[in-house]
């Protein structure tokens, strides 16, 4: 079993922590092989009515070791939201 990734201090101190310990059952394949891992991730969000790509080089997210399914939890969503805010604030500052 792999140890859980080290999280940035602002996320590690978050009151939203997993209620149940890993591993979890995968919603896709059903195997009990979901553990938190760190991946490079991109997603699309709308900003001022236009789609933008949000890139995160080190997203800590639960992932199935069998099928690769990402299981987004509150912690992963917080990281994505923070990256979105950082990227959009940088674009506002550049104008």
Can you put this structure into words, describing what you see?
- This protein has 95 residues and is an alpha+beta fold.
- 26% of the residues lie in helices and 31% in strands.
List the helices and strands and how they pair.
Blueprint: H1 9-12, E1 34-47, E2 50-64, H2 74-94
Antiparallel strand pairs: 1-2
- End-to-end C-alpha gap: 48 Å
User: How are the strands of the largest sheet arranged?
Assistant: 1-2
Task: Characterize the largest beta sheet: strand count, sense, and whether it forms a barrel.
Answer: 2 strands, antiparallel
Which stretches are low in confidence, meaning pLDDT under 50 for 5 or more residues running? none
State which percent range the strand residues make up.
25-35%
- Specify the oligomeric state: single chain
Name the overall outline: elongated
Q: Look at the helices and sheets and give the structural class.
A: alpha+beta
The radius of gyration is 15 Å
**DSSP E strands, number:** 2
Q: Which tags fit this structure?
A:
95 residues; alpha+beta; two-stranded antiparallel ribbon
Short description:
By secondary structure, the protein is an alpha+beta fold. 26% of the residues lie in helices and 31% in strands.
């Amino acid at each position: 079993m792999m140890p859980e990734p080290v999280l940035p201090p602002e996320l590690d101190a978050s009151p939203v922590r997993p209620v149940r310990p890993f591993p979890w059952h995968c919603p896709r394949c059903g195997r009990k092989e979901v553990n938190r891992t760190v991946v490079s991730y991109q997603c699309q969000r709308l900003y001022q009515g236009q789609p933008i790509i949000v890139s995160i080089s080190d997203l800590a997210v639960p992932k199935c070791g069998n099928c690769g399914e990402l299981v987004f939890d509150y912690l992963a969503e917080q990281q994505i939201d923070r990256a979105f805010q950082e990227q959009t604030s940088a674009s506002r500052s550049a104008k």
